[in-house]
What we know:
CATH superfamily of the domain at 2-265: Amidase signature (AS) domain
Low-confidence stretches: none
Bound molecules: glutamine
Oligomer: single chain
Distance between the termini: 13 Å
Amino acid sequence: MTDALTSLTIAAARDALAGGKFSAVELTEAHLQAMGGASGLNAFITTTPEAALVGAAEADARRAKGETRGPLDGIPLAIKDLFCTEGVRTSAGSHILDNFVPPYESTVTGKLRAAGAVMLGKTNLDEFAMGSSNTTSWFGPVKNPWGPQDGKDLVPGGSSGGSAAAVAGRLCLGATGTDTGGSIRQPASFCGIVGIKPTYGRCSRWGIVAFASSLDQAGPMTRSVRDAAIMLAAMAGHDPKDSTSAPVAVPDFEAATGRGIRGLKVGIPREYRIDGMAAEIDALWRQGEAWLREGGAEICEVSLPHTRYALATYYIIAPAEASSNLARYDGVRFGLRVPGETLDEMYMNTRGEGFGAEVRRRILIGTYVLSAGYYDAYYLKAQKVRSLIARDFAEAFETVDVILTPTAPSDAFAIGENTDDPVTMYLNDVFTVPTSLAGLPGISVPAGLSARGLPLGLQLVGRPFDEETVLSAAAAMESAAGFDAAPSGC
Ligand code: GLN
């Protein structure tokens, strides 16, 4: 029974709760038990079992009275530890915030709570969401439930690695992630789950610890496209507290998953066929194309000529914004303070001890590209290239409705691999970063297994605020792929 409960989709659990097949408390207990048995994955930084059981009991009480708050009422979810949660430690995976208990709730988690969702705990992540492997967390690396391979533990991808591992490992029915350059989509690909980064502005950033404010977006990570649609509907919406949150209505995303793709125009960007691309990634990409064509879509080639500048552009803009955002951690207002003889020394000690190596690297890069004399050469230039990248997409979307690409250039690698070579690590984002720079919605759908038997995802990208088309194409690809593999033991 317990295994059966943790293997459900959100949609199936919702229907079963409505049909009285089991209670929200039973559903939550099954997940708390699974979390206890899988603590070796290190997917959670903080667990909140008591509050979860209270929330589940409240959902059951509502249901007993014939009330419900909608599809997420009584559904156990995990929350990336970058979302501020009132009264529950929010660490951002960093030593500098490891004792920070926010007095307020992020808009997105507040919406999920209001929808009746039950929070099981806060998931591990790369420090301040900087990374592609979940190895930069102060709380240690997360293990991918698909490992080990050849005796080595695998990364779940990053930065939302704890959320991806928890969803893939059947420790929760869905989780929140954030994506600045790929942090929802790449871990979704590595763990064999669905992850959508919505259009920039679709979900409020209020109360999410900031990394790069012009890129950060919240999104759901789930085991089906329909579940992603259900969660996204609850997370999205205009928020006056975030000036970049868009005042647009939230459509019926779940209904969009059933729309079909007959006549849909799908673009294949020529420039994404990068040098040295692994043969199995290329083959899966072509397979995805075939699935969509068989489903009635029309496939055509498109050109995104500025793609090759995207990584360099991202790794100027994101660190620049991060260096500015992280200036607030000064040992005075938030988190850790390491004393010193003078105020300056206190700042230096706090930031030197509080931030890990990757975060310090980004602050150094960011401060450099923003400094007088280099601002024009790097930051301003990067902003101009960013506009060209966005324009490429806008032109492509004059002829196609969605764009199909691989999500990541490889399957999950071993923990420790790539860590001493930041540039190789940054290459993980080659297919996800352009979409982020252009602010577009992108989804990763599990599409197949690598030769080593590890999951691989395909990415679909859409027009701004057209998550409905992205979700409908993703649902079609999901059913054609029929991906039903799970990590052993799940
Ligand atoms: N891997 C990318 C980085 O390290 C993206 C991270 C993210 O999307 N939060 O910046």
